[in-house]
Backbone:
């Protein structure tokens, strides 16, 4: 058995490929009836700004006055700071988008309660612990103080934050591109030169194709593998869709092909092991060893393996992949009433879901969510539907959904969980069937051949008839003396 065949067999045995037309029966969409966000639950009397919002939560004017300009944050200001962080975690992203100023500059004369969008480079990160009595009161076991050099003039600011990316080491990643939607508190320093802010979280934009598109990698902390789509991962899902929409045509594909060309360990084993090793995936399934890429044919054309997507999803987060196969389902997903915050913030109201089957997926689907389709690609699903596609996208997670497995004479059908890697891209490449122009050319060629054939047959018959007339003419001349010429 070849290595590719072993890969296919392993997937087909492990993941129980009972899809019944890509699992259209009894399955959730990749957005799976997302819970109604907080923005949709607010009363019609929305607060006009952050100060009114905080006042409604009990953060009165006296707490703002406790932040004193001209000095560093001290113990007397810790309690209102933690109260601020406690309430900022409940601030809806839609309201943040409405209230946040675009940028901070030295010319700004802010008041305590204004929101700003900050971008810069991390200089220093310090972990802080509140007193025990405040930990329980504000449900805040720790918080952070980040010193950030703001773009474009490297002006230093302090941002007190509740959450930083979980993958960061102690002290953060100095020099990393970061951002925050932060509320101004005061100016520190004797000359009022260093602004101080509070924010719920510090965004991280690493130097990757996805980070360059403005996606916050800290959002992956809320994405749970091998689970249905959930409300906690909703922000990461839609922010990645928005980032893919900002990509230039072909940019994600180019990034994936670059990684594919540089990938090591193709389908030529370098290990001297006599057989594939076994290990356990995060879900506890035993899987054979695999290669990240494999050879498609004898022309050195390579393709990403789907094994890392199924079994090592944590190591693939945000990476670009390109896969080729047959789409058994292409469907537009329209955002509903509960997604109005997404529509207003990211300016799109639909995307497309593709269920793709590759040569090595063992009958298991790869889910792609893309912002648009190429012209002419029909939507559809079911046994009679199949379109050849090549799709590039950023890896998001392995999600699960219910499918109805076919029953047998021994019992009725059952509901099973299906696992599918989910990637997010811009637009697939479609390999349509022969175009009408090609059909027309073929028709013209066949027509010309038919006309020529008819003409040849007519000429042959005409020549045969002419020969027959000459023959009978000569016979009559030889048998009738009157036809002979006189001497």
Residues:
């Amino acid at each position: 058995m070849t290595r590719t065949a072993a890969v296919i067999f392993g997937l087909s045995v492990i993941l129980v490929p009972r899809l019944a037309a890509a699992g259209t029966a009894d399955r959730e969409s990749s957005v799976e009836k997302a819970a109604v966000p907080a923005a949709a639950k607010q009363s019609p009397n929305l607060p006009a700004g952050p100060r009114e919002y905080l006042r409604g939560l009990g953060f009165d004017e006296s707490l703002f006055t406790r932040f004193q300009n001209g000095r560093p944050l001290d113990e007397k200001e810790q309690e209102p700071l933690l109260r601020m962080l406690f309430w900022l975690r409940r601030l809806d992203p839609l309201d943040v988008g409405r209230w946040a100023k675009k940028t901070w500059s030295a010319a700004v004369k802010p008041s305590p309660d204004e929101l700003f969008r900050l971008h810069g480079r991390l200089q220093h990160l310090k972990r802080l612990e509140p007193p025990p009595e405040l930990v329980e009161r504000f449900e805040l076991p720790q918080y952070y103080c980040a010193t950030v050099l703001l773009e474009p003039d490297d002006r230093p600011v302090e941002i007190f934050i509740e959450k930083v990316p979980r993958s960061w080491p102690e002290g953060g990643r100095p020099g990393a591109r970061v951002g925050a939607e932060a509320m101004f508190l005061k100016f520190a320093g004797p000359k009022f030169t260093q602004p101080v802010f509070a924010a719920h979280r510090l965004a991280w934009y690493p130097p990757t194709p996805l980070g360059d598109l403005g996606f916050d990698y800290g959002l992956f902390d809320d994405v749970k593998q091998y689970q249905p789509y959930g409300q906690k991962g909703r922000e990461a899902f839609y922010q990645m869709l928005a980032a893919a929409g900002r990509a230039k045509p072909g940019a994600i594909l180019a990034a994936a092909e670059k990684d594919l060309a540089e990938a090591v360990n193709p389908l030529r084993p370098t290990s001297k092991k006599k057989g594939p090793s076994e290990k356990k995936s995060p879900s506890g399934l035993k899987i054979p060893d695999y290669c990240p890429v494999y050879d498609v044919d004898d022309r050195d054309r390579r393709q990403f393996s789907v094994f890392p997507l199924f079994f090592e999803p944590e190591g693939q987060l945000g990476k670009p992949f390109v896969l080729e196969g047959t789409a058994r389902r292409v469907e537009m997903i329209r955002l509903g009433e509960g997604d109005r915050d997404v529509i207003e913030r990211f300016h799109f109201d639909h995307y497309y879901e593709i269920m793709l089957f590759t040569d090595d997926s063992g009958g298991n689907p790869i889910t792609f969510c893309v912002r648009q389709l190429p012209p002419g690609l029909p939507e559809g699903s079911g046994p009679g539907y199949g379109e050849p596609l090549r799709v590039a996208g950023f890896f998001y997670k392995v999600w699960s959904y219910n499918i109805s497995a076919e029953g047998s004479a021994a019992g009725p059908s059952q509901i099973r969980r299906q696992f599918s890697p989910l990637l997010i891209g811009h637009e697939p490449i479609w390999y349509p069937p022969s175009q009408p122009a090609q059909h027309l050319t073929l028709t013209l060629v066949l027509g010309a051949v038919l006309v020529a054939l008819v003409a040849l047959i007519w000429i042959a018959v005409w020549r045969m008839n002419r020969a027959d007339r000459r023959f009978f003419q000569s016979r009559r001349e030889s048998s009738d003396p009157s036809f002979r010429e006189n001497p």
The chain has three domains: 3-34+229-430, 48-221, 438-465. Residues 388 and 431 are 6 Å apart (CA to CA). The two ends are 97 Å apart (CA to CA).
